[in-house]
Structure formats: C-alpha cells, structure tokens
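User: My collaborator sent over this chain with a note saying "see what the structure looks like." That's all I know about it. Can you take a look?
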Amino acid sequence: MRVTDIIEKKRDGGELSQAEIEFFVNGYARGDIPDYQAAAWCMTIFFRGMTPRETADLTLAMAHSGDMLDLHDIAPIVVDKHSSGGVGDKVSLVIAPLVAASGLHVGKMSGRGLSFSGGTLDKLESIAGYRVDLSETEFRQQLKEHGIVLSGQSKDLAPADGKLYALRDVTGSVPSTPLIASSIMSKKIAAGADAIVLDVKCGSGAFMKTPDEARVLAQTMVDIGKNLQRKVIALIGDMDQPLGHAIGNALEVKEAIETLHGRGPADLVEHSLVIAAHMLHLGEKVPSVEAGRALAEQLLADGSGYRKFLELVQAQGGDIGMVEHPDRLPHAPLISEVKADQAGYVHHINALEVGLTSVDLGAGRAQKGDPIDYAVGILLHVKVADRVEVGQTLFTVHANDPAKARAAEERLSRAITLGDETVKPLPLFYGIVS
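Assistant: Without extra context I'll predict from the sequence alone. Here is the result:
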C-alpha cells in the first residue's frame, strides 16, 4: 500500500478498508508516516467523515496499536468517565475521587488540552511533582493499592492515538466526529474500562455545537462500546457557557478542591453529582441512578471524596501541601477585572471566546509541544440569566504579561451579551444516550 493512495482515496470520498486503516494507523505509530501526511489524512476525515464501520475499525486499530490492559485480576468492574471537551470542565478532578471513595475502581487515562478545550493532565501538572506518565506496571499497581488512577497515555497504550491527539490539536482537525469518537473510545478500550460514562458537550464552547450534533457523537461512541461488550452511556451536557467559574489550569484545580470541600459553584456541583451517580450505577455499586446520587452526595458531604483526591495526588508523586493549601498553587503576577458598563440580564456568554482567550494568556497550546503557564486563566463571575449592575465584575483575568492582560480584557468584554429582558438559565444536560 501507498500512504498517498490512502489519503487520496479518502479525499475523494472513498471508504477505507480495515486493512488500509490499520496500515495507516500502525505506520504512523511506528514513525514510518510523517506528521505532514498524518495531518493531511486527518483533514480528509474532517471534511469527508467516516462510516460507522470505518470509525469502529479506526478505534480498534488505535487501541491495538499498543498494549491492551486487562484489569480483571484487580477488580471485577473498572469504571471510567470521559468528556468530549469544554471550557472550565474540571469534572474529572471531582468525580474520579468521589466515585473511587465508594470502593469502585476508577482507572482513567486522560488527555491534554485540545484547541480551546483544557486538558485534565495539564490541570493536574499544576500540582508540583504530580506524575502523569505512569507505566503500565505503575498504573496497575496504583489501581490495585488505591483504587484510583488519573494518568496520561503511556507509550505502550494506544500510542497511535497519543500521536494523533497532539497533531489534531494544532492542525485544525479537532472537531471531527469520527476522530473524536475513535480517540476517546480507543483510550477507554486500551485502558481496560468495563463501564464508561461519556459526558458529551454541546454549545459554543464545545466541538459539537448543537444537541443533535452531540447525540450523533454520543451514539457513535455508545455503539462502539456495545460492539466491544462495554457498558456505555452518554449524557449530553451544555457548554454554551463555561462550567463553574474557573478557566485555566491551577485555577481549575483550586475550584475542584473547593468543590470536594462542598463549596463549589452550583452548576459544577450538580454536574459532578449527576455524572457520579451514573458511574456508581453503571459500575453496579448501587441499584439505581437515584441511589447513586444519594451515595455521591454522602461521599461529598463527609469528605471521603476529598480524602481520596489527597490519596491520588500523593500516590502519583504530587505535593499534597498544594491540595491542603491551594494558595500554594501557581498564581499569576497580574490580576485585573472586566466590569459591566451597563445593567441588564446576561443573555449569552461565548464560551469559545473565553476558552480561546485563556489559550492566548498561555493556559493552552498554539503549537504542538508548546509549554503551558499553569498560573494564568480567567474567573467568570456571572452566568446566563443573572442580573448585572453597572460596574459589577464580570471576569477576573490572571495574566503574566501586561499586553496579554489588556488583550484578554478587550476580548472578554465582547464575549458577554447583556439585555433588558429576563431569560431562562441554561440546562446542564439535554438528555441521555444509552
């Protein structure tokens, strides 16, 4: 086979065979296919799409490009959760320890930021010493001893996806349903998850802009799981405004810690409890989602989730002093505010613009391999439907450079729309695909 022929076939609308997909995926994982050809291939998929069969074949090819974990010698059921990306989405930092505190085993392989969407690994690395590069042996040992792992992809697990994931971030090919679905599910399959709750976001701050688009992605991933004998459900979550208040790595870790102490923003708390309830039910810890909700509330209220987060950070080499005293987390030298110049009700918050502004501040990557500034970011002080008065603070900017701070202030002032009429608050979820 020739790589060029495969790219041209998909460019012209052809359907790739299983052999062609495996040839391309394995060749890229080995380094035989260069980034520029892989980028072209991703872009053809972005424009041409993939059939359900192609998407399933791509998922399996990426999962089988490295080792496949079987964790049943550690636990009968390993649960996992994954978000399709969003702005201010630090839910994994809350629900993974919350669910693990119940006794269920949570083995999670997370990713870095993609485009405007923050990554769980980048957030965790704002905690000094926290290791995200666990080997398979370390992954298994920690899951056995502590019942929880929040790690990156090891070089041995779904290596093709690891390379493509980083490449898509900087080549404009992130918002593609087959590429998102296969990326997410290949990691879950390779990491040995039996029960998976998917948090598929839609809105201005998500890769899927409408609930219908999100349902297509959700159904694609649920079907992949069903075909591979995994228990999978997907919730369609709102991302027409950032989740919680914090956008930026250390700021989001601080907010997750506050949430585990029972002091988090209402939308983040509710979102986390709903996801946790479904994980506890799918993992067969409780007989119903309602019972899962009650258990999640109990584990949050009695501090079990927070203590499990401390255990997780310590197990992976992180400085627990930063968790116990969040003021020790990285903090930006420049802090400024964006205030309302008129009164009214918040009609719209452009989550995409807020996410892109955080990237410009240094909280995300413009190019593959760019360093992250863990301290910078944004605090959002209002939500859609809130009443705002003149001079009220809308955003707080945390920056490392005066010019970047000014640019962020100007951009954020245009990211929010106020009006005279009252509007309804946005829903947290639009439905479930199971």
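A starting point for your reply to your collaborator: The first strand starts at residue 78 and ends at 83.
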